[in-house]
Structures are given as C-alpha cells and as structure tokens.
Amino acid sequence: MRTKVLMAVATATVATGGLVVPLAGTAAAAPAPAAKDAADFNGDGYGDVVLATPDATVNGVKKAGHVAVLYGSADGVAGGRRQLVSQASAKVPGVPEERDRFGAAYDTGDLDGDGYADLVVGVTGENDQRGLITVLWGGRGGLVHGGLSMGSPRADLDVHYGESVVVGDFDGDGKQHVATHSYWGAVSLSGDGFTRTRAPKQQRLNLHGDDAFRVVERLEAGDYDGDGDDDLLASGIDNAEGDFLNGWVGYWTGGRSGVTFTRPPAALPATRTGLEGSGDVNKDGYEDVVITDEAAAKGGAVGVYYGGRRGPGSGGATVLDQDSPGVPDEGEDGDEFGASASVGDVDKDGYADVVVGAPGEDVPGRTATGAVHLLKGSAAGLTGTGAQVLDQDTAGVPGAAENDDRFGSAVQVRDTDGDGRGEVVVAASGEDVFPGARWNDGSAWVLRGAPGGVTTAGAYSLSEKAFGLTYQNKRFGAVLGR
C-alpha cells in the first residue's frame, strides 16, 4: 500500500470544523509575520548554516552532541567565521551528558522579536531520555547570548521530547511559536511572548485518534491556506498498537484565536516521515508542502501538494520521480530518492525549487555514493524541465564518490551570500574522513545558487577537521534543519 500512496494525486475539500486551541498572547491586529525561514543569527544580512551532530563526543562525553555554525558573508560561508556550540559552551543551559543528543533536531526563527534569528535545538536524550528543547538567542556577534530550555509540559509521560521542531506564527500576530513532539506522539505548542529569561506556557494538542494510539514522527509548518497564519502538519503512525503501522497526517489550521484541528486533508497521502519542507513552488501566494516516499515508483518519488483556500493539497499536486520527463538519471531500487528534501529559490526566479537527496544512488563500480537533484518550481508547479543531478564525481564538487558516502543524506537551501539565490547545503553522513573510520565520519558541502540552478563554481566542503575535532564515526553535520 505504501508504494502507491504518494502516487495518488487528488484534490479534496478540507473540512473546517474542529477543536480550537487558543495561543497565549494573541492580538487582535496582525502585522505581517516574520519570515519563517530567516536564519541570520548576527544580523549582518547573510543567512547562516547550522550543521548538527547529535552523536558528537563533547569533552570526552559520548553522544552529548553539538552544532557547528557557519556564518554567511559576501563570499558565503566560505568567507564567514565558524562557531561550535554545545552544552559545554559559555551561557548555554545544561552540561554535556552521555546520549543527550544536543542537535537531534532544530529550526530557526525570531522568537523574542529583536530582529535576530534564534536557534531552537532538540536535546532528545536529556533528563533520562525525557528530552527538552533549548533556545539559543541570536544578536550582535551571533549565538553568544546564552539561551533557555523548555521541558515537556508532561515530563512524566513524554520520552524524547524535541524529536522534531518547527517555528511558526500560528495566530498571525507577528510573534512566533515553537511546536515539538515526543516519541509517544504528543504535540506541544508554545504560546508567543518569548523573552530571554522566560518561555511561554505550552499546550498539548489532541491528536484525535479516538481509540488509536497515534505516534508523531515529523512536523511541518507553512501558510497553506494563504490567510497570513501558519498552519501545522504532523505525520506518523496512525495506530502503533495495530497490526499494520500505517501512516497518518494531522492538520491544524492557524487563526487569530489559535490553532484548529481539521480533518486530515484527503489530498495529502498518509505518510510517516515524508514531510520534508514548505514553500511557494508555483508562486500563487499559497505555501505548498513537499512529501516524499522512498518506496514510491522505482527508487523513490517526491510530491508537491499545492496550497489553496482550503489548505494543503487543495490546489492539486505534482509527483515526480527519476523516470519523469526531464529528470536526470533513472530510478533504481535502493536509490532512496526523497530520503531528504528542502525547499527554496535557488535560481532567483521567484519560484521555490525543491532539492532532493538520493543517498543510496550508485555510480559505476561504487554503491551508495549518493546524489542530489534540483527540481525547479514554475507557474505550472514542480517540473522536470531544467532539472539537475550532482554527486561527488561531478566536475567542481570537492571529494570523490566512494562506497557508502551517502551524499545527500540531508539537504538544506539557504542564501548565505545575500544575492537572493539559495545555496544548497548537502550532508554525506557516510563520508570517511579519518583513517580507520567505518564510513560514517560525515562531511558537508555548500553548492552555490546561480541563474541556471546549482553551480559547482566556488563549491565549498568541510568536515569536523575544520573545527579541530578528531572524533570518528559520528556523522558530522548529519542533521540539517529547515
């Protein structure tokens, strides 16, 4: 059944009835919401990149985790400074403990409204695996202003709180909220009104599973109905106690009085972990959601479900795979096309593009070397026209394609040089860096955006060596947020 679910393209009317959950601090008047995807921590006008390594060893503590921050500049991250942040850093709450996994998930947004992006980090192993999230405040000089931590409102029940983190303005008042979830399925949504010393109250959202034991595995946010308020999507297992672990999608519409649980859109395929980003791919004023399925087609597929007045998917859908017209390469079993995806305007034409990772892709004579595809947005939506595919054997890409590199295990689009074109950040979780490594030291690449798409001119790569680190087999930079 799962191999068919993404291929079914449908539109449907989305019911608007449901439970309204008010958000603390809502206001009657609503200025334009802050840019959800802003990631300028030091306010210099250039986007910054975060490479999270939750399995990193910190001061000898295994799997304590850290994040590496690459600050943008006129020359992108290659010309910017670097910073390593962990619970051992000055002013960061907590201390490194084994299996804390600081950086298991993250998102960015301006939570305190000071004009600087802040970093929200999931620390899923903290407090005996109960988990928490830590907000690191941006400001002049970047992420050097400390932060605060938030635990689950039901720490007695939750495990691995902070597994997925999204920031959005769900009531349209210009102030941002944080949504996260725990392993057992509960979604927690903060109110607005963050300050540098206080986090607002959180609310747990009802998953409306009736007698089913629903589990959430992924969250995503975007203004899919074009009303100025972000909406929230959740995906996971419909019933973890059932005979079949079928996928499920939950949908909460944003509004001035809070979020409203809405009947899951029939146009969206049931998925467990396929929510991979949002953006306006066809430039019609509605954000669209990207849902991938590695088991669809042959080698995987990616679908864009267009926003509309009735929410995500009500504007139709486009599903592409490696055998679609114009898409380079061909689908093969195990390619994992859609294992990762990110949305952003790479060529500055005003349409959001979709970057898709295929970490299981082979090159002649080598296996699971990995590849990254660029699929372009257009007035007609996602298209194979002008699509590109790059790997470590592509001229200009640093390194060489080797067995089990898994280039494309995570991807992200971020404008780091201020030219309006998003750079493509690529993780290769299996890249070997040190002699004797077991093919999972990990490295990251930044490929520049250009008028025609992705260019390898000025391509930049780095590993943990750039920070003076010598640990092995920790998959440096394996987690790339939104």
Key traits:
single chain, 482 residues, mainly beta, five-stranded antiparallel β-sheet, four-stranded antiparallel β-sheet, 2% helix, globular, disordered N terminus
Bulk shape: globular
Taken in chain order, the helices and strands follow as HEEEEEEHEEEEEEEEEEEEEEEEEEEEEE
Strand order of the largest sheet: 1-16-15-14-13
Q: What is the count of DSSP helices, taking H or I runs of 4+ residues?
A: 2
Beta fraction: 25-35%
Gyration radius, rounded: 21 Å
DSSP helix fraction: under 10%
Q: Outline the biggest β-sheet.
A: 5 strands, antiparallel
Structural class by sheet pairing and helices = mainly beta
- Which regions are unreliable across 5 or more consecutive residues at pLDDT < 50? 1-20, 25-36
Number of strands: 28
Mean pLDDT: 91
Rounded to the nearest angstrom, the distance between the terminal CA atoms is: 29 Å
In words, what does this structure look like?
The chain has two helices and 28 strands. By secondary structure, the chain is mostly beta strands. Strands 1-16-15-14-13 form a five-stranded antiparallel beta sheet, with no helix packed on it. Strand 5 and strand 6 form a beta hairpin. The longest helix is centred in the N-terminal third of the chain and has 4 residues, at about 1-5. The model is unreliable at about 1-20 and about 25-35 (pLDDT under 50).
